[in-house]
């Protein structure tokens, strides 16, 4: 088991205080908090089925779709390339480098985590990959990160031109680009994990799951994290509990939930799970 202690300031220090100490990575804008208190963050269960199975099922679906299209038309259309029903999640950050120290967020989740339900000891078996230690250079990298080069076509003349733009973020998701972020891509490595193990990582560490799952079993993990006890997370925990008790999809970074739309309610949620005393506090019930 490898444990790396990753510290964030927690006594209300200013950014100037932290920089003067030579540890800029420890700063955050959410103020003082008690290290011994926090809230649980409910995320999701992730499955990565074997690549061969994903391609086989995807090919069958595509073949059925092609056959239906041919039956509708007398003209034979060119068959589309088979598409696997599942692909890898390429290297990325679950934060936006340009706005990392902004307090305008729905929650502050500095440490991410999953509990593995399966052994994942070898590369290319759909498992976790990351760039260890990258959080220490994250802020310097974010300032110096090269822009993206985009090719645009003039609507009238059709002439192409290349322009530069900031690397895109979609919400709290930032893609690691193969060309402009090549040195980061090269730092990504497989992290072997046994079933039952918990893996924690700083959310400034680029991570992914393997490009292929060449094994014969699905890789399965439960994503779960803990949120420091700061005001922004107290508000989030209240909304999370409200969604849980109401049987609604959580309002989270992965899903755009319309709070006025009843279709977000999966079913009447008569909860039968009994939380422990600690669990009730983590869920903000008590």
Describe this structure in words.
There is one protein chain. The chain has about 290 residues and is an alpha+beta fold. The chain has 2 domains: about 15-50 and about 85-280, B-lactam Antibiotic, Isopenicillin N Synthase, Chain (Jelly Rolls); about 50-85, no CATH class. It contains 6 helices and 12 strands. It has helices at about 15-20, 50-70, 140-145, 180-185, 230-245, 275-280; strands at about 40-50, 90-95, 110-115, 130, 150-155, 160-165, 170, 175, 190, 200, 205-210, 220-230. The protein has a 4-stranded antiparallel β-sheet with strand order 1-12-3-10. Strands 2-8-7 form a 3-stranded antiparallel β-sheet, with no helix packed on it. It has a 3-stranded antiparallel β-sheet with strand order 9-4-11, with no helix packed on it. A hairpin with a 2-residue loop joins strand 7 and strand 8.
């Amino acid at each position: 088991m490898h444990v790396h202690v990753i510290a964030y300031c927690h006594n209300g220090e200013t950014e100037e205080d932290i920089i003067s100490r030579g540890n800029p990575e420890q700063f955050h804008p959410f103020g003082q908090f008690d290290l011994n208190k926090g809230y649980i963050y409910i995320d999701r269960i992730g499955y990565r089925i074997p690549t061969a199975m994903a391609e086989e099922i995807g090919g069958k679906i595509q073949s059925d779709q092609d056959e239906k299209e041919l039956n509708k038309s007398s003209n034979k259309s060119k068959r589309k390339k088979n598409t696997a029903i599942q692909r890898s999640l390429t290297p990325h950050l679950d934060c936006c480098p340009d706005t990392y120290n902004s307090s305008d967020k729905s929650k502050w989740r500095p440490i991410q985590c999953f509990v593995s339900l399966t052994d994942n000891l070898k590369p290319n078996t759909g498992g976790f990959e990351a760039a260890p230690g990258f959080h220490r250079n994250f802020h310097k990298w974010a300032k110096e990160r090269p822009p993206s080069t985009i090719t645009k076509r003039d609507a009238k003349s059709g002439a192409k031109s290349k322009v530069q733009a900031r690397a895109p973020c979609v919400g709290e998701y930032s893609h690691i680009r193969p060309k402009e972020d090549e040195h980061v891509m090269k730092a990504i490595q497989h992290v072997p994990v046994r079933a039952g193990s918990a893996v924690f990582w700083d959310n400034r560490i680029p991570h992914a799951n393997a490009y292929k799952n060449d094994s014969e079993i699905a890789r399965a993990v439960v994503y779960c994290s803990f949120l420091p006890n700061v005001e922004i997370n107290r508000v989030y925990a209240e909304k999370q509990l409200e969604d849980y008790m109401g049987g609604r999809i959580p309002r989270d970074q992965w899903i755009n939930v319309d709070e006025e739309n009843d279709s977000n309610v999966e079913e009447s949620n008569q909860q039968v799970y009994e939380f422990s005393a600690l669990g009730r506090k983590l869920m903000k019930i008590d």
